[in-house]
Write a structure and sequence with these properties.
heterodimer, A: about 110 residues, mainly beta, 5-stranded antiparallel sheet, globular, B: about 120 residues, 7-stranded mixed sheet, 4-stranded antiparallel sheet, 11 strands, about 0% helix
Chain lengths: ~110, ~120
C-alpha cells in the first residue's frame, strides 16, 4: 500500500545529541502525525500538525508541517536513553476517509 | 487523552484455532476503528476499517473470511482470526477514530502478539 518516505531508517547516537528525521511524499497531506512505538506496544502520539507551515513543540520534540504539504520533520533535542524506539510519521490525505498512511519508521538507539 | 484498550496482549495457540481480539475505546466513541498488522521491524499495515453498525472495509489482499471483524457498538470492535496458521503469527494493533472528525489523530491500543504453533 501507499507509504510515506521516511528517513533515516535507523540512527545510533550518543546521549545528549540532537536527532532529526523526516518524511516526504509526492502527494499533499491534510494532517501530519508523529508517533513513537516502544517494543511490544502500540504507537503513542507525540505531535499532531494540521496546517502548512505549522511548527509545534512537545518538550524536547519539535515537528513542522512543510509549506508544500508534502513533507514533515521531527527533531529531538538533547536525546536521552528513554528516547529509544521506533518513530513513525503518518498522515491523512484529503480523500482518505480517515485512513492513516504511515512512513516506514526510524529506529533510534541512544548510547548512554 | 483518549485511551484504547486491546485484549489480549499475547496469545499462543495451536494451528487451526480461531482467535478473537478485542479493541475498546474507553473514553470516546469510536465510530471507526482500524485494524493493523505489523511484522518485525516493519511499519503498520492497514488490514481493514471497521465501521460501527455496518460491514468492515478490507484492504486489498486481506481475506475477509479469514479476518472477521465486528463493530457492534461505539466502544467495541473485535477481530477474529479464523483457523489460524503459523503464517498468521504477527503483532495486531487496533486504533480508534471518530469519523465525524476524520482528521483527528487515531489512538492506538497496545497490540496483541499472536503466535500460532
Amino acid at each position: 500500500g501507499q507509504q510515506l518516505n521516511q528517513s533515516p531508517q535507523s540512527m545510533f547516537i550518543q546521549e545528549g545529541e540532537d536527532v532529526s528525521m523526516n518524511c516526504t511524499s509526492s502527494s499533499i497531506f491534510n494532517t501530519w502525525l508523529w508517533y513513537k512505538q516502544d517494543p511490544g506496544e502500540g504507537p503513542v502520539l507525540l505531535i499532531a500538525l494540521y496546517k502548512a507551515g505549522e511548527l509545534t513543540s512537545n518538550g524536547r520534540l519539535t515537528a513542522q508541517f512543510g509549506i508544500t504539504r508534502k513533507d514533515s520533520f521531527l527533531n529531538i533535542s538533547a536525546s536521552i536513553p528513554s528516547d529509544v524506539g521506533i518513530y513513525f510519521c503518518a498522515g491523512f490525505r484529503p480523500s482518505n476517509t480517515g485512513k492513516l498512511i504511515f512512513g516506514q519508521g526510524t529506529t533510534l538507539q541512544v548510547k548512554p | 487523552g483518549a485511551v484504547v484498550s486491546q485484549h489480549p496482549s499475547w496469545v499462543i495457540c495451536k494451528s487451526g484455532t480461531s482467535v478473537k481480539i478485542e479493541c475498546r475505546s474507553l473514553d470516546f466513541q469510536a465510530t471507526t476503528m482500524f485494524w493493523y498488522r505489523q511484522f518485525p521491524k516493519q511499519s503498520l499495515m492497514l488490514m481493514a476499517t471497521s465501521n460501527e453498525g455496518s460491514k468492515a472495509t478490507y484492504e486489498q489482499g486481506v481475506e475477509k473470511d479469514k479476518f472477521l471483524i465486528n463493530h457492534a457498538s461505539l466502544t467495541l470492535s473485535t477481530l477474529t482470526v479464523t483457523s489460524a496458521h503459523p503464517e498468521d503469527s504477527s503483532f495486531y494493533i487496533c486504533s480508534g477514530g471518530d469519523r465525524r472528525n476524520s482528521n483527528q489523530p487515531q489512538h492506538f491500543g497496545d497490540g496483541t502478539r499472536l503466535s500460532i504453533l
